[in-house]
């Protein structure tokens, strides 16, 4: 009998439980914390921009080639696209639940590369970006100017240069998206009448800008191979891309036959402003820029949010006067409160179980054995959750709350069986062996039956399966650990801790009898009184049913 092996080797039984508890204690710090399991399917997003094009043009020239190539990528569930009148195009590819997001991104990127030759040149130059996207926003940080000193363009530029990259480097963050982003750009406004009077078109202006606004490599003076014995090598630096309004105004568009030069300032004006002003953000009526922060699927939401807030406090010391930030949207308070409430329920359940066990077993020695089973099974479950990729959320913690009542029952059965044989005169070791011969089968059967109830939930597919899988497997794992504990540690502890009737009381037992012994005696009298009343009622009912005339209650029972 396996239990006898552990009864004779209590240290080995203790080591098994200690290893399970240590593994769970280490794993609990690696588990992510969320309000609910991650049920949203993984998505990959493709972004590009066709400046100046309408939504119809973008859909026909950009969206159609990309969607034709991406459609049917391995593991894809569906895809959706959005084309806007500012030239932006977004393709969102949604994959089946369980698909590796990194692999999905590579597969989509390969399909996008096939479509690049069919895209307009300006789209390829501005870039086609493929990135994995978390479905939910963790929190948003609004950068604003309370006194209205700075406009949205300045705030957007400051957020991109000094805040976005700092937040993106934090652990657990997948992307930082700037809402209402406005980038500095040289905007050239040409006068159609002045162009027409000089026989020029907008294409002439664009061609002149491309020719004269370029970065060139001019070479070096004295670079080998050269004749002579010169030992000096000087790189040649020439004016590259234009950077000021005056530089752009001086760009030559055409030279006339009489030697006159037509520059951009002769046919229009140049200004340094935002490239696009389609989106206006306001916070309390003042310009603002929002940074939406997306977390990685398996990241710890609370730890990630805390690191973001700490980083923003650090960056605030370098803010210019008149710039401040506000966390406008934050999901972590709901997560924190919901998880804390479940932890409180877990604590209350353990306390109630401890009180019930102490009241009915009426001694610290028999009560401590079931109470040891609770932390071993509950804490050990965290190790299995880490291996399975689960998170600490409302469902898994609720499963642990329910599992407390299950895991303590097995140990109580063992202790009561051992106590029963001790009352009959057996020594604790012999009583433990005799009891395990009787209850090993039922304990094992209960564990297998409960596992058979919950384990099939692991094979439920879809969003429903994502919800119930973690809840069911948490209970199943804790039940299995409890069964192992009841067959190994509980009988070993019963043989060591329990004492024969009439044995000398230890100090803790004496203290228990002195302090709450009166409560145990009062409880036993009340319990016995209630039992006697119930027995009389059963006997009276039995005699009445055996009489010649059946009372109505007997007739209903029959």
Plain-language structure description:
The protein has 558 residues and is α+β, with helices and mostly antiparallel strands. It is built from 18 helices and 15 strands. The strands form five sheets. Strands 5, 6, 13, 14 and 15 form a five-stranded antiparallel sheet that branches. Strands 2-3-1-4 form a four-stranded antiparallel sheet. The chain is elongated, with a radius of gyration of 38 Å. It starts with a helix and ends with a helix.
Task: Describe the SSE topology.
Layout: H1 2-8, H2 10-27, E1 43-49, H3 55-70, E2 76-83, E3 88-95, H4 101-115, H5 121-126, E4 129-133, E5 137-144, H6 152-168, E6 173-179, E7 184-190, H7 192-197, H8 202-212, E8 220-221, E9 234-235, H9 245-249, E10 252-255, E11 261-263, H10 264-267, E12 268-274, E13 282-283, E14 286-295, H11 301-316, E15 324-330, H12 332-361, H13 364-388, H14 394-423, H15 428-454, H16 462-497, H17 507-546, H18 552-557
Helix pairs in contact: 1-16, 2-13, 2-16, 3-4, 6-11, 12-13, 12-14, 13-14, 13-16, 14-15, 14-16, 15-16
